[in-house]
């Protein structure tokens, strides 16, 4: 079966109602404290790549840490900025795709949480790692999490030919509605449209609805392309991008990764000594 090529522009669903959902309902998680320890431990300044609506960034700013953010979605950034402003905070935020990262500052820590491989091509993902490497101070640290491709049994069955013949999945009824701070209700429903195991690319579709006073006020459909990476190919990609010291943690813990972990955290450094200044 022919598959749809991934577009050059990152294809992600973090806009409009989905962005609003993130801002209202995705606000905690073990990642926040885990990554914060690295930043607090002589890891400033830091950059949160794919910062979204600020699930990590805002707690870090509240803790007084020097952290900038960047994201491809202007909608996610606007919601992050609005919430920061309400609290008297004014983060430096950049609207950039990570494979085009080009910022005026260098960082001791760069965090990529839940954002690597989203919307991009494999070449763009490698370029993103190179650019992140180049935005680190010498000896700086990249913290990057990645959900392993075999984490979700439903997704995994579609890697097989027989499974793929069942795609696209039928539209599912929406998840239970969630009430936002302004009283509106949000409903999301996602489905798998396509999977290309050769390219390790998954295409998902999201139907988002916003209800006000019992009536449908807005609805949107978005697509998300994502690449699924195994541990060892990410290690090779990090090495090609210039990192020479990489440790893989299991989940958001100090433990080494095992085959039972659904999320891996790559702690990547460039340990090469800084080249001495030429003598005159
Ligand atoms: C799953 S959300 C995670 C947001 C945030 N890091 C967190 O953990 O709450 C993914 C974010 O990555 C952003 N994103 C997706 N593809 C991107 C790309 N190629 N470059 C930069 N940001 C991207 C999305 O716009 C979205 O805000």
Commentary on this structure:
- This protein has 280 residues and is an alpha/beta fold.
- A seven-stranded mixed β-sheet has the order 3-2-1-4-5-11-10, sandwiched between helices. Strands 6-7-8-9 form a four-stranded antiparallel β-sheet, with helices on one face.
- The termini are far apart.
- The relative contact order is 0.16.
- The site of S-adenosylmethionine (SAM) has 21 residues, from loops.
Strands, helices and their partners?
Elements: H1 16-25, H2 30-40, E1 46-49, H3 57-62, E2 67-71, H4 74-86, E3 93-95, E4 107-112, H5 122-134, E5 136-147, H6 153-156, H7 161-164, E6 178-179, E7 185-196, E8 201-212, E9 215-227, H8 231-240, E10 245-250, E11 263-269
Parallel strand pairs: 1-2, 1-4, 2-3, 4-5
Antiparallel strand pairs: 5-11, 6-7, 7-8, 8-9, 10-11
Helix pairs in contact: 1-4
This protein binds S-adenosylmethionine.
S-adenosylmethionine (SAM) is lined by residues 10, 12, 14, 26, 50-52, 55-56, 71-73, 76, 97-98, 113-115, 118-120.
Describe the structure concisely:
This protein has 280 residues and is an alpha/beta fold. It has eight helices and eleven strands.
Keywords for this entry:
280 residues, alpha/beta, 7-stranded mixed β-sheet, 8 helices, single chain, binds S-adenosylmethionine
* Unreliable segments of 5+ consecutive residues: 1-6
Q: Please give the radius of gyration in angstroms.
A: 19 Å
Number of strands: 11
The chain-level structural class is: alpha/beta
